[in-house]
Predict the structure.
Amino acid sequence: MTSHQRGKRRARLASSVCVVFFATACGGAVNHAGDVAVQPRTTEPMHAIWNFGVDDSTWSEVIAPDRRPTVVAAEIIQLDSITGQPGVPVETAPTALESPDPLVVVSNWQTHRFHPEAVRVLSANPSALALTAARIAHRVEVDDPWGIVFDFEEQAPADLRGTLAVMRAIRDSARARVHGLRTIVVLPAGDTIAYPARPFAELADFEVLTFTDERTNASAPGPLITVERMSRTLGRRVADVGASRIVAAFPAYGYVWRHDQPAQAVTLGAARQLATHANVDVIRDPAFYSLHAIHARDWELWIGDKDLQRRLEAAAGALGVTKFAAIGVALADR
C-alpha cells in the first residue's frame, strides 16, 4: 500500500469511526487518551458487531446472513514465549463478508495455550520491549488497520503493572506511525482481579469482554453462556467504565462432550450434522435458551444460535451496551 493510499484510507476511517463503533450509542464527540474527537451520527444504524474468527456459514446461522461485521480480526501477531519478540503474523479472518475495517491482534497465545511469561519478560527488559514495540509498529504501519487489539490472557494479578507497561509501549510506538489507530484490549469478562476494567480503560479505547468462561473443553456439560450470568457480569463492568467503552463478545460455537474425553468445539452446522446422523433431536432448553442434544451413552451437545444471540444482545442493550463481537470455533479455548 502506498503512502497516498494509506492517507486516503485513514481519511475514510476518520469519517467512519462513529458509524462503525458507536452505533446507536453515538451521541457526541469523544476524546480518549490522545485520540482525535469524532462527530456524532444523526441516524441510528443496527448495533455494531465485530467478527473474531467466525466463518461465513456460521455467521449466517448464528448472527444473520444480511448483517455485516463492522470490523474483522484480520491477523494475529504472537509473542514468543521465551523472548517476547513478535513472530510472523498469521492471517485469521475466515470470512469473505465485507467489513469496513481490519484489526491486528497482538497476543501471548502460542502453541495451544497462552504464555503469561511472554509479557513478563518484556516488562522486565526495557530493551526487549522497545524492540518488540518497534517491530510491531512497523507491521502495523504496513497493514494500516483500524485498530490494534491486545489479547494478553492468563496473566496473574501481580502482572497488572507490567502488562499495562507492555501495552503502553506497543501502543505508543504503533500510534506514532499510524495516525488515529484505535487501541482495544481483550479482558476475560468474569476476572475482575487480574483484569480490572479501569486501569485498562486508561490505555484502551475499547474493552472486548469475552464471555467464554462458563464452559471450556475441560468443563462438565452445560450451556456455554447464560443470559442471567452474562447480565450480572456485564453490569459490573459497565459500572466500572461505562457502556460506550465495552464490546460484549459471545461464543458462536458449541461443545460436544464425549465420555472421558475433553469436549470438542463445534460450529452450529457441524452440531446439527452430528445430531442428524445420530437421529437425535436438537431442542431448545427452556431455562437457558441454548440448543441441546443428547445421544445416550455417547455424547452431549450444547450450542447457541440466532435466538440466543438476540437474547444476549437484548440483555446487554438493557445495560446500555451497543457493540458486540462473535467468537468463532477457531478461537475456542483461547
In short: Residues 40 and 119 are 37 Å apart (CA to CA).
